[in-house]
Amino acid sequence: MTVVRKMADDLNLDVTVVGLPTVREPDGLAMSSRNVYLASEERRSARSLSRALDTAKSLVQQGETSAEKIKREMRAIIAGEPHTRIDYISVCDTETFIDTNEIVDKALIALAVHVGNARLIDNCIVERN
Fold it and tell me: Could you say which of 30, 64, 98, 112 would form a disulfide bridge with 59 (CB–CB 3.0 to 4.6 Å)?
């Protein structure tokens, strides 16, 4: 969020940037206008995005620090569903958005996945205990 705030300051924009949690539908899918493009079987596949993020959180809480291991687990969950095609999974610094190999304190995990004709995005921040 700091990068966005810095950009607003650099451009001398009279705005306040406020980060808020992702709003989710009851089945865990991040709320998005793109969800209307999903057929029912595609929607079931799309739930793998939030499952993958939950797995990442759990791995970090259990002590995993390797971004590659976390991404590998996330890929397996998403790729195991029909109708999905991963665009990217990123583990990056929460301040600079630069990809990292190792989670030292906390990290932003962001992903984009094509599900059917829709390109869905989701993210979470993970923190080590």
Answer: 64
